[in-house]
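User: Predict the structure for this protein chain, please.
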Amino acid sequence: MSWLTLRGAQDSSMPADVYRRTDADIAKLSGYAARLGSDVIAFQEVDGAGVAARVFQAPTYKIFITNDPVVQRVGVAVRNTLTVERHPDVTALNVYSAQAPHPLRSGLDITVSDGKGSLRILVVHLKTGCWDNPPDEQKHACPTLQSQFAVLSDWILERQDEGEAFAVLGDFNRRMTPGDPFFHELATSAPLLLTTAGHASPCWGGEYFIDHILLGGAAKNWLVPDSLRVMSYKHDGTSPKALSDHCPVSVELSLP
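Assistant: Here is the predicted structure, written as structure tokens:
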């Protein structure tokens, strides 16, 4: 959600050129969230539960967000009719050393249940800069992203071993396709359904997907066919900075 925060312009924890949302901007985002109307909404780049709750409002939603000591955190808004079990944050996704000045973001790990079925969910925001580079590139962000994908592979393998229905979703910062070596690494841990495969996004004039929803275990069979959607924003002169440079990506699942 592009640096969604209420911090002031003089806050040293943020770049000086970050756009600060107005109350009107946040109200507009909240309107889009209400229009989206999803049961589970994963989000990235949000500075805490307080500002998230102004977009995904109570009593419709309850907010869960990582405990990272950073401004750009990942989280999820879950409809209040669903039960949520919170698991420890996947801090291993911060593959940097403890001395690194800017840590990478943890993953948010929850299980959502409607009382009949349950879905394990991991929300991620991975390292930017390795969009479609080859896996053997040893410069820029690719080695870091590869290390994060290894952590994801371990998490996926655990879900497969435990027989859970699961989803990994969020900003992968990777233009994944079924033939992408990075996706192949994940799929060697368990059969996965890449719901964005074969599609491009209409967001802000069109682009390849870097936000993905991966389904594994029984959840692969829960996808409602042709339910992939991208919510675009109205062309009313509003800048992406005031809303987000990303658009909501959604699918429908039919739990047994």
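The chain has a mean pLDDT of 95.
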